[in-house]
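Submission sheet (multi-component)
Chains listed below:
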Amino acid sequence: MPAKLVFLGRLEDVAGTGELAVSPGPLEQVLAALDPALAVQLLGERVRMALNGALLGDTGAVVLADGDELAFLPPVSGG
Amino acid sequence: MADVRLLGEAFSAIDELAAFTAAHPEAGGLVSFLGQVRQEGGVQVVEALELRHYGAMTLPGMQTLAAATEARWALDGLLILHRYGVMLPGDPIVLVAAASRHRRDAFAAADFAMDHLKSQSWFWKREKTARGWRWIEPRPDDHRDLARW
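Outcome: structure written.
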């Protein structure tokens, strides 16, 4: 079962899709398989990550398991 | 128990407030805030606004905010409605209402909930002008508003 990346806000435009199925594994490995221009945006310092709906504090050691959903969240812009 | 909803379709603020008021006859005061899509003139006319949300986090975050609001003030009722999707000028975006025995709790609770919805909720906004769609970045004011609490 693949893992899933979710791109929110402007990152969806950069990625050209809202969701992407990826092979599970360490985040570095997952990002290395993406378009480098997208990977750079995903690692922007203002982009936060959430794993299965929970915001991550430290993203250094993320390893995606089968069925995991990792979301990339740019700064929110309110209602 | 707060009434918290994330809506994909337009809602009637008047109907919602009538129902909320009727549900809380014990409250002596009811304060509401309605946010709507601004109608502006000039070259930067906003033709449409889109709010995107994230299923795993947006509504759960609104529910957490409602619980925090209810924990902080003595409320008889709390209503938080927020739209997502494409909206046109004049469309309602957000409706917050707080009912309490005395008015100050209701004023403060509605103000607190709005400041947090604006700056901390998981919504991403883009606007359409004559030049096309453009993503909106957070405003420094939103963070200053949060520092009030």
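Remark: Residues 47 and 64 of chain B are 33 Å apart (CA to CA).
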